[in-house]
Specification:
about 230 residues, alpha/beta, TIM Barrel, eight-stranded parallel β-sheet, 8 strands, binds D-xylitol-5-phosphate, binds zinc ion
Length: about 230
């Protein structure tokens, strides 16, 4: 079955050199990244800490495409303005991060940014219907958030159901966690259009020697597009 959806590849800088984010963003974009996925972790909502708005602001001038900020933090609302000012294009919050996700999505949109809604692997789709018109992107986590390099959890049925729920709305389905050329096809077939990949993009290269990034991105894109009937 083919459909016209194009595949967006969003490398996660969680797998990049933390001492050299600027160069890493420039390198991976030059090698074909469509967006840059930025994982913010607070050591409270998830069992790991990365960085906050100051780092996002510092790397923003090195990103020419889309800065896709995935907030794995709780609470979210007190920090939305800071991430918006840091230059995020998309701000994604977890449904599990608090009791007022509707308010959070409204607050993100009120900054003029795109609003994303992330779902942990253990979270079902019940309760998201009222949020679909407030959301530009739904991030289906295919690992439990907190770390890169974990094994992929196949949630094809969830993605398929979500795509049907979204219908004609202009809402991206993003998959985050364990994406490789082997796992991407089933997700694309199920209806995903944005694939985040950390370890599978950054392995084998460096900002100074980034050709592997390009090969890795092409391998994921080709596998996903072939699965939905695009010419490779
Ligand atoms: C996990 C992060 C992911 C992660 C993906 O908490 O949200 O974005 O970096 O990394 P890989 O592709 O290595 O699973
Ligand atoms: Zn992420």
């Amino acid at each position: 079955m083919s459909h016209p959806r194009t595949i967006t590849i969003a490398p996660s800088i969680l797998a990049a050199d933390f001492a050299d984010f600027g160069a890493e963003c420039r390198a991976v974009e030059a090698q074909g990244a469509d967006w840059i996925h930025v994982d913010v972790m607070d050591g409270h909502f998830v069992p790991n800490i990365t960085f906050g708005p100051a780092t996002c602001a510092a790397i923003r001038p090195h990103i020419r495409t889309v800065m896709d900020v995935h907030l794995m933090i709780a609470p979210v609302d007190p920090y939305i303005a800071a991430f918006a000012e840091a230059g995020a294009d998309i701000i994604t919050a977890h449904i599990e991060a608090g009791p007022h996700i509707h308010r959070t999505l409204q607050a993100i949109r009120a900054t003029g940014k795109k609003a994303g809604l992330a779902l942990n692997p253990g979270t079902g789709l019940d309760g998201i219907a009222p949020l679909l018109d407030l959301t530009d992107l739904i991030c289906v986590m295919t690992v439990n958030p907190g770390f890169g390099g974990q094994s992929f959890i196949d949630l094809s049925a969830k993605v398929r159901t979500l795509r049907a729920m979204i219908g004609d709305r202009p809402v991206h389905i993003q998959i985050d966690g364990g994406i490789t050329p082997d796992t991407a096809p089933a997700m694309a077939r199920a209806g995903a259009d944005v694939l985040v990949a950390g370890s599978a993009v950054f392995k084998g290269g460096t900002a100074r020697s980034p050709e592997a990034y390009g090969r890795n991105i092409r391998a994921i894109r080709t596998a996903a597009e072939a699965a939905i009937g695009h010419a490779a």
